[in-house]
Structures are given as C-alpha cells and as structure tokens.
Amino acid sequence: MADPVTIIMIEDDMGHARLIEKNIRRAGVNNEIKHFDHGGAAMEHLLGTRSHNAPLLILLDLNLPDMSGTEILEKLKADDRLHRAPVIVLTTTDDKVEIQRCYDLGCNVYITKPVEYETFAAAIRQLGLFLSVMQVPDPE
User: Distance between CA 56 and CA 84 in Å, rounded?
Assistant: First the structure.
C-alpha cells in the first residue's frame, strides 16, 4: 500500500494559511498538512528530517520573510529526492516574468491570491487524484 501524500504548506501569512487549509478540506482532501511560516524551517524539514520516500505535495508562497519562494523552488528541484514533488505556487505576485520563472524552475501550477475557490479546489482535487493513483519510482 502506498504512503499517503503529505501536503507541505510554506506560507507566512496565518490568515492565508487558514484559508488555504479550509479550502483544501472543503475540496474533500483529508491528507496531513504540515505548515511552515519560514522557508528555512521548511527546507530543513524537507532536506533533513522527512521520510525518504514519503510522497509530497508542496504549496509554496513566493514572499517569505527569510528567503524567496523561487529560491526554495530551485533547491527543491535540484534535490535528487524532492525534484519530482509537485509544487503549487500560491502567491500575490501576478508578474508575468515571475510566473514564467516559476514554471521554468519546475512548478506544476501557479495560482495568484486571492484564490478563487473553485479554481483552487479543482487543482487540489486533480493533483490529489493523480497522487492517490500514482507512485513515481525512485531512479535505480
């Protein structure tokens, strides 16, 4: 049996974090959510303490107090164990250059806050369904 997907939410605004979690739950997703309000703590967890093969979905804000979300995205996609983890960028930044940069770095979905609930719920449900039926094998 496959391990359940853990959702890692990297969001420094507690109001946004509560709203995101509420919308995830409204979408019918009951997976564990681990919330980090600083990029450094999230990266420490992701790179150092998490289970080696546990599947993840990462929700990433770009505007964090200690490091940029694009810096985090770059580090995630450069790591052998984490580069396949789907990343949804959830941020207030709607600059086309920044959006393209995130896709170039490997994000799967870019959503601008404030989030329209149905769009967000559909993205979460689709990724959740995808993750529930697929396990990407580790490279040999």
Answer: 9
